[in-house]
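Design job #97: recover the sequence.
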């Protein structure tokens, strides 16, 4: 089996390679093709992978790794394509953040104004890649990590149909942490072959809620026999401050808000529920998250290919990067839990999805998929062709929602429909070359509080990224 990774010089690629060397995915991939437009990054990550192979424990087959800057060559012959691109690079992320902040808005890469700027760069690139893939390799599967993943996936479904699946590790991480706190330890690693039948999670990418955790009969609870396997364990968790403070989302949102909501939000909802605090915290930071990452990568990549211990240098940089994730949501200098920093996110979800579509051995994963992929709406109140993020069964046919007719609460539906309208205007702006649609996206976003500001921030993004202006020319 051949796996192609677009964005092959990316920071997370060694995690994918590591998972292919040992464990449940070892031996699944024979050829690993890394594609990137940056030859320096490709060489550096190639050196990390070579050292990981040399120092691996145990025996067995390892994938043959090749690198290329030729897109068509990379896509040709691939069974599965992982796409993890950042058009504009890390400096583009810095501009996304800083321009939003200059207008008093949230400076975040996927949420709010910065996320829309990022999407306006990502969608054209990814649609061109999808067109090329359809031409040279129409039977390949595309698993998209490229952010904003929900918008990008929605833009690709008309081109690739069921052969594109969008992924994010935030929902799986939330389920894992909340299930552990609730004593449902069999759900603690849902990306590794577990069942999500008892998980009520719905939303869009970076905008979802865990609304129920039912034990489906494994008996794997806090040491007691499961006499009522259908009982929802989430209400008891929400009523127990000690357990809530044992995991990241419980600390971010706090017992009071979680009790009011009756659900555990995805961590990215911090930017909606605490918008004022998030803007203040980010504005008061000496560096944006993008500037921190840009500086770290500037130090890491140039000498990585010739370093005596490239894998060690990369691992140290990875841990530092992970520990700085969402710091604005963790007051008083709180550090991330070791389990959250240890990895096991994107790569496990992506490889589980890959394994399922290739082997037809089903996996249950929370992924981005058409709302009507099961023949009926998975989330009521949203359009049939809207991409939603829900628990799915993934197999040789693609991803199909596990649950039908999930009804959001009124406040959930309000946020979902508002943000989905913004996402669709963003896609229209690209596919129809329509600047008015782009302006509507900015003006209608819940985190952009003025149409005047929307107009000015879009103009500033156009000045910073000339390719945006060329979209409507």
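Job complete. Output follows.
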């Amino acid at each position: 089996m051949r796996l192609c990774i677009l964005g092959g010089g990316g920071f997370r690629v060694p995690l994918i390679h590591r998972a292919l060397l040992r464990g449940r995915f070892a031996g699944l991939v024979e050829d690993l093709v890394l594609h990137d437009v940056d030859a320096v990054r490709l060489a550096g990550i190639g050196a990390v992978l070579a050292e990981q192979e040399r120092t691996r424990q145990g025996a067995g087959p390892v994938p043959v790794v090749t690198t290329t800057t030729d897109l068509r060559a990379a896509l040709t012959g691939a069974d599965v394509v992982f796409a993890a691109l950042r058009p504009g690079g890390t400096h583009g992320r810095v501009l996304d953040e800083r321009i939003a902040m200059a207008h008093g808005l949230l400076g975040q890469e996927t949420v709010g104004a910065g996320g829309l700027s990022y999407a306006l760069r990502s969608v054209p690139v990814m649609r061109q890649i999808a067109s090329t893939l359809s031409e040279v390799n129409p039977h390949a599967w595309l698993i998209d990590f490229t952010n904003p993943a929900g918008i990008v996936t929605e833009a690709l479904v008309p081109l690739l149909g069921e052969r594109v699946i969008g992924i994010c590790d935030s929902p799986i991480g939330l389920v894992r942490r909340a299930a552990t706190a609730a004593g449902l330890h069999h759900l603690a690693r849902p990306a590794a072959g577990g069942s999500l039948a008892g998980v009520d999670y719905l939303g869009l990418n970076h905008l979802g809620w865990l609304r129920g955790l039912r034990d489906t009969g494994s008996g794997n609870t806090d040491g007691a026999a499961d006499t009522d396997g259908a009982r929802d364990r989430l209400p008891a968790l929400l009523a127990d401050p000690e357990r809530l403070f044992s995991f990241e989302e419980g600390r971010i949102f706090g017992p009071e808000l979680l009790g009011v909501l009756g659900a555990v939000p995805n961590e990215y909802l911090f930017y909606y529920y605490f918008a004022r605090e998030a803007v203040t915290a980010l504005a008061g930071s000496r560096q944006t998250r993008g500037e921190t990452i840009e500086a770290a990568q500037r130090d890491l990549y140039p000498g990585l290919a010739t370093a005596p211990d490239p894998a060690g240098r990369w691992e140290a940089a990875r841990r530092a990067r992970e520990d700085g994730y969402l710091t604005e949501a963790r007051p008083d200098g709180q550090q991330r839990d070791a389990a959250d920093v240890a990895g096991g996110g994107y790569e496990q979800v992506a490889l589980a999805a890959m394994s399922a579509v290739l082997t037809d051995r089903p996996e249950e994963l929370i992924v981005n998929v058409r709302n009507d992929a099961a023949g009926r709406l998975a989330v009521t109140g949203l359009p049939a062709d809207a991409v939603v993020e829900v628990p799915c069964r993934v197999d040789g046919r693609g991803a199909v929602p596990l649950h039908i007719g999930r009804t959001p609460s009124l406040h959930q539906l309000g946020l979902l429909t508002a943000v989905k309208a913004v996402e669709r205007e963003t896609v229209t702006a690209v596919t129809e070359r329509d600047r008015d649609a782009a302006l509507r996206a900015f003006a209608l976003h819940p985190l952009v509080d003025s149409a005047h500001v929307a107009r000015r921030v879009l103009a500033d993004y156009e000045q910073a990224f000339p390719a945006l202006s060329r979209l409507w020319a």
